[in-house]
């Protein structure tokens, strides 16, 4: 059985709770090499996951035994690290958003084309059983055509999840996060709508605001903590999307799809992750799996899919082009 050695760049929460454990559990991965600007962080994860440490990014990228990397750096360096890794002959799984601007993301997609390596982006909502089932139902046209939709993604904010659990989190910094909640949570839902509907959002009008979050100095943050938007797709569907870092209660990750003959409700109910209500009053409930939340870490399936695309030499399930089309929508939402 072929096995591969992988590297991870950036050792924050996303690496600790998702990338590292999922690579570690994957039978095709023989070893993980960790890099972080903060050496103590990479050493701690290497110890926890039986890996080793690279002292520089270059050391990791020049190691011919490393086949693939996860780019878990903060948003503003994705275009640099991912492009460099691709051109160094590595396959790359990049965290979302792909980049801080469409222009920088286009350079990454170009680097992927030039390198011939795989570029996958961590839009993990495509991998949940409820979303996959909903896509099947929509494609089958059992409920007719999709007319409208609404989706939301909100929780208490990244300061409750980030590695340092404080308001000094890089997510709140304009020069590092760039797009605030839009690029953190919103882009997941845009990608999901594209995936569920096999369609693309082409027009967006939105209100954005920094309504409640403050930084470590008690000042309002420089990026948005809330977005409410109205969207229109290429095929003429219209819908709404809300993203928030100020849902101070249970996380909301729900989507509703309104079709000609009924409604599909996703992640509205804790036990019935998918509920179909037909026009004539029939209700079908699907119990598939609980959604992964920041408080309930389950395997996302992203790492397994990425590794499989390398071992079996097939197209990744979320390509650079997919991620680029979602980023275009985020730029529209932010009015950039």
Query: In percent, how helical is the residue content?
Result: 25-40%
Strand order of the biggest β-sheet: 8-9-10-7-11-12-13-14
- Helix segment tally: 10
Q: Superfamily at the CATH H level of the largest domain?
A: Dihydrodipicolinate Reductase, domain 2
**How many separate structural domains?**
2
CATH class of the largest domain: Alpha Beta
CATH topology-level name of the largest domain:
Dihydrodipicolinate Reductase, domain 2
Q: Name the overall outline.
A: globular
Low-confidence stretches: none
Quaternary organisation of the protein chains: single chain
Structural class: alpha/beta
Organism: Salinibacillus xinjiangensis
InterPro entries: Gfo/Idh/MocA-like_OxRdtase_N (IPR000683), Gfo/Idh/MocA_Oxidoreductases (IPR051450), GFO_IDH_MocA-like_dom (IPR055170), NAD(P)-bd_dom_sf (IPR036291)
GO molecular function, one term: nucleotide binding
Protein name: Gfo/Idh/MocA family oxidoreductase
């Amino acid at each position: 059985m072929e096995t591969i050695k992988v590297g991870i760049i950036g050792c924050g929460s996303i690496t600790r709770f998702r990338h590292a454990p999922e690579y570690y559990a994957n039978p095709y991965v023989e070893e993980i090499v960790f890099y972080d600007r903060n050496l103590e962080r990479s050493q701690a994860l290497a110890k926890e996951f039986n890996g080793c440490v690279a002292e520089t990014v270059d050391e990791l990228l020049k190691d011919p035994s490393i086949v693939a990397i996860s780019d878990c750096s903060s948003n503003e360096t994705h275009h640099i690290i991912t492009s460099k890794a691709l051109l160094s002959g590595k396959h790359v799984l990049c965290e979302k958003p792909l980049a801080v601007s469409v222009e920088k993301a286009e350079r990454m997609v170009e680097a992927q084309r030039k390198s011939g390596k795989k570029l996958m982006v961590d839009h993990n909502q495509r991998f949940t059983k409820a979303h996959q089932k909903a896509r099947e139902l929509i494609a089958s046209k059992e409920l007719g055509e999709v007319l409208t939709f609404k989706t939301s993604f909100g929780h208490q904010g990244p300061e409750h999840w980030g590695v340092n659990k404080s308001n000094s989190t890089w997510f709140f910094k304009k020069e590092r996060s760039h797009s605030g909640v839009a690029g953190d949570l919103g882009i997941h839902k845009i990608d999901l709508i594209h995936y569920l509907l096999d369609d693309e959002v082409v027009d967006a009008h939105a209100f954005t605001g920094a309504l409640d979050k403050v930084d470590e100095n008690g000042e309002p943050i420089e990026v948005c903590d809330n977005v409410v938007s109205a969207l229109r797709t290429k095929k003429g569907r219209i819908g709404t999307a809300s993203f928030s870092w100020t849902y101070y209660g249970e996380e909301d990750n729900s989507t509703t799809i309104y079709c000609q003959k009924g409604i599909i409700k996703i992640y509205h109910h804790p036990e019935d992750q998918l509920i179909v209500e037909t026009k004539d009053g029939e209700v079908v409930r699907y119990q598939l799996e609980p959604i992964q939340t920041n408080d309930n870490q389950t395997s996302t399936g992203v790492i397994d899919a990425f590794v499989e695309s390398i071992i079996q030499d097939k197209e990744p399930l979320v390509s650079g082009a997919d991620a680029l089309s979602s980023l275009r929508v985020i730029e529209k939402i932010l009015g950039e």
